[in-house]
Amino acid sequence: MKPCDESLKKTLDLVKQMLDLADEGDAVREDTNCGVLYSVLRDSAYKVKLLAEEEREAHKRKGWWNQST
User: How many CB atoms lie within 10 A of CB 46?
Assistant: First the structure.
């Protein structure tokens, strides 16, 4: 896998961690300010995910992305 593809893979892994943390934090929060924090985290994760997925598709079209990953 090319280094640029590895970075995209790490970014998508980070997005999953961000979404998991937002869900976890939201489940145990005790006030609305935390709810705002986890909503922003979730929203940011989805924005990064969209960009990373679009870039991954561009890499696939170029034949760079290892299709088995």
Answer: 14
